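Review this today:
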Amino acid sequence: MKRVGILGGTFDPPHIGHLIIANEVLHAKELDEIWFMPNQEPPHKIKTVSVLNEQRVQMLKLAISGYEKFLIQTIELNRKGKSYTFDTIKVLKEEYPEIDFYFIVGADMVEYLPKWHKIDELMKLVKFISVNRPNYQLETSFDVDYVEVPDVNISSNLIRNRIESGKTISYLVRDEVERYIKEYRLYES
């Protein structure tokens, strides 16, 4: 069976931290691919995304270009309303019965797992893989695998704030993503 890791998020914008997590999990768990899955409206976040869905997908394409094992899955962008992982995984398992899916989360989400929609049923459908994040614990009563990744304290919020303040984002995102952000004047105040 093919083994695919899913890395969900707003990717608003995608940054080097996302790529490091994907690469570390891909190799540590010997997965065949990582699917980056931009979400529509994550139930755990208050603020919605800052740019159009098409722009987030385009930035993701630029971020993963050249990485043949990194792909984009837009299933959640095609649905309106809140994106629940349970619903997404159910559909993916029906569409791709020949794939074993692994859902990648940061330590911040591990702490939040008890509040996830239909978490007990979800745990039967997909294997969770957690990665460390600065200032978060990895303790949970749920069956979650763990991959240690280098501590890179970069967030999309940090990048948006730096752009808004006129600061550099070089080396925080791939050069292609930075050029796209500048060309379309994204995240400027």
